[in-house]
Write a structure and sequence with these properties.
about 65% helix
Length: about 120
């Protein structure tokens, strides 16, 4: 019983493949007649075929038309510039102290509660 089902399934599968290939042949099959015709082309005809050239877009080929491309600067160049100028973008410990750090704990809590109350009013 299983053998007959398997045979029917395989037969149906083969029929579906054949039907599919008839409706949508492979590209190789579509151009097989043209490939056969190429065997009759003479050597002179082959040499007379023009070169394709550059198939890219004209804007890509012309360097004067395209805008400059962005290339990120390496970290070594940035580090060298920082070392030469003597300026740094880091804060000292004294600069890191904010106004809220200057309050004592009770004042800090009162400040935070009032700040949160103001933020709640804005919503």
């Amino acid at each position: 019983m299983d053998k007959r089902r398997k045979e029917r399934r395989e037969k149906r599968f083969q029929e579906e493949i054949e039907k599919f290939r008839q409706e949508r042949p492979k590209i190789q099959q579509q151009f097989s007649d043209l490939k056969r015709a190429l065997s009759r082309v003479s050597n002179d005809e082959w040499l007379s075929i023009p070169d394709v050239g550059d198939a890219r877009n004209k804007r890509e080929r012309n360097p004067h038309v395209r805008p400059d491309r962005y290339t990120p600067v390496p970290d070594t160049v940035l580090q060298r510039a920082i070392n030469q100028t003597g300026r740094h973008n880091t804060l000292s410990a004294a600069q890191l102290v904010t106004q809220i750090m200057l309050y004592n704990i009770v004042q800090r809590e009162n400040f935070l509660y009032s700040y949160l109350a103001l933020a709640g009013d804005k919503i």
